[in-house]
Design goal:
Layout lengths: L15 E6 L5 E7 L8 E6 L10 H9 L2 E6 L24 H17 L4 E6 L1 H11 L7 E5 L11 H13 L29 H14 L9 H12 L4 H5 L5 E6 L7 H9 L4 E6 L11 H14 L6 H12 L13 H5 L9
Parallel strand pairs: 3-4, 3-5, 5-6, 6-7, 7-8
Antiparallel strand pairs: 1-2, 2-4
C-alpha cells in the first residue's frame, strides 16, 4: 500500500492510502484527499479506465483539490496495485464486467459514505464511464452528478467488431478466457512510443505517464484477456438499445473526443442524444484521454466541468455556455483530425479504455 511515482509526477496534498475488500474477496487499493478549505464543495470519485492506476491522475487530483473538492481514487480489480484474478499480474483480466460493481460498492460503503463529505460526484473515463452509466441505469450509482470522458459505449479500435466478438466468445468457450487477446502481450500501452499513440497529442504528459507506468511495473497492465474482451462486448451491447439511455435520470455530462481512435464518438453522441438529464460535448482535436491532453483541450473540459459540478440551475445549458465563454474555437486546435499514424500504429489488442 504505497504510491510508486517518478520525480516528475509528485504526490499531491496529503493523501491517505487505504485498502478495501470487496464482497467477493478482492483487495482494492484506494486513496483519499481532503482540500484545504474548511467547507469542501463535496467529493469527486475518480473512476479510471482500463489499464490505468491512481498515480496517473495526480494532476487531476490537484486540480480538483484546488476547486475545493475532496477526492477519492482507486484501482479497479485486475489493474494498478489492486488484487488480481489471474496469476500473471500484467494481464488485464476480469471474469465479467458485473464484478466491477463489487469494487464500486466497496468504495461507496467503506470510504465514500462513512468518511467523505457530501455531495458525492463521479468523474469517470472510458471503461469507468461505461461502468458508471450502467450503474446509473440500474439506479445504484452513489453520485449526485456524473461527468464522463470518452465513455466506452462502443469501440472503434477493434475492427470488424462482430467477428471479433464472435472470436472472443469462441475462444472463451474453449477455455482460453485467461489468455491475452490474439496479438496482445505484457507491454503497457502507456509505455509505447509517443509517435502515433492513440491516447494524447501532448508529448509532455505522455512522457510523464510513461514514466509513471514504468515505475509502477506490473500495475500498468498490458493487453486485455479474452475474457475481458468478451465481457466488454457483452457489456457494450446494452448501450445500443435505444430504450437504454432514456431510463438514465442521473444528471450526466459526457465529454467526447473529436479525434478518438479508441472509443466511437458517433456512437457516444447517439447515446447521449437519448439521455433525459444529460448532454454531450465533443472537443475537436482531442484524442482518447482528454484529461491527459494539451492545455487548450483540457481548459475546455474544465470549463464544462465547472459549469456542471457541483451544480447549476440548468446543467445542460450551463455547461455549453461555459464552453462558449472560454472562446476556444475549433480552429485553435491545430491538427484537429486523427494523425494518420495513429490508425497504423500499435496492434488493436492493446485496448485502453
Amino acid at each position: 500500500m504505497e504510491f510508486i511515482t517518478p520525480p516528475d509526477n509528485p504526490v499531491p496534498g496529503e493523501p491517505k492510502l487505504v485498502s478495501v475488500t470487496t464482497r467477493d474477496g478482492i483487495t482494492l487499493r484506494a486513496a483519499t484527499w481532503m482540500p484545504e478549505t474548511e467547507e469542501p464543495q463535496g467529493t469527486v470519485c475518480i473512476l479510471q479506465g482500463r489499464a490505468e492506476f491512481i498515480e496517473k491522475y495526480f494532476e487531476v487530483v490537484s486540480e480538483l483539490l484546488d476547486r475545493g473538492f475532496a477526492v477519492v481514487a482507486f484501482d479497479w480489480r485486475g489493474q494498478g496495485l489492486s488484487g488480481r484474478q489471474v496469476s500473471n499480474p500484467r494481464k488485464g483480466h476480469v471474469r465479467r464486467f458485473a464484478d466491477f460493481r463489487h469494487d464500486l460498492e466497496a468504495v461507496r460503503d467503506q470510504i465514500l459514505v462513512p468518511h467523505m463529505p457530501q455531495p458525492h460526484f463521479g468523474l469517470a473515463h472510458s471503461m469507468g464511464g461505461a461502468i458508471a452509466l450502467n450503474a446509473a441505469y440500474e439506479t445504484w450509482l452513489p453520485f449526485r452528478r456524473l461527468v464522463t470522458t470518452t465513455p466506452m459505449i462502443a469501440l472503434c479500435i477493434v475492427k470488424r467488431t462482430r467477428s471479433s466478438a464472435f472470436l472472443a466468445r469462441i475462444l472463451r468457450f474453449f477455455g482460453m478466457g485467461k489468455m491475452f487477446v490474439p496479438g496482445g502481450g505484457e507491454t503497457s500501452i502507456s509505455t509505447m512510443p509517443f509517435k502515433g499513440n492513440r491516447l494524447t497529442s501532448d508529448p509532455v504528459r505522455y512522457a510523464r505517464n510513461a514514466d509513471a507506468a514504468h515505475a509502477i511495473g506490473a500495475g500498468a497492465v498490458g493487453a486485455p484477456t479474452v475474457a475481458w474482451l468478451d465481457s466488454a462486448f457483452r457489456f457494450m451491447k446494452r448501450f445500443a438499445d435505444p430504450r437504454y439511455a432514456v431510463k438514465i435520470r442521473l444528471p450526466t455530462l459526457i465529454v467526447a473526443a473529436g479525434a478518438d481512435p479508441v472509443c466511437a464518438t458517433p456512437a457516444t453522441e447517439r447515446f447521449a442524444a437519448r439521455l433525459k438529464a444529460g448532454s454531450v460535448i465533443v472537443i475537436p482535436g482531442a484524442r482518447h484521454e482528454i484529461l491527459m491532453e494539451r492545455d487548450v483541450i483540457r481548459e475546455q473540459f474544465w470549463a464544462a466541468f465547472d459549469a456542471f459540478v457541483p451544480g447549476t440551475p440548468d446543467p445542460e445549458v450551463g455547461a455549453k455556455r461555459s464552453l462558449a465563454e472560454v472562446g476556444l474555437a475549433a480552429e485553435q486546435l491545430d491538427g484537429g483530425g486523427v494523425d494518420p499514424a495513429v490508425a497504423r500504429s500499435h496492434d488493436a489488442p492493446a485496448v485502453s479504455s
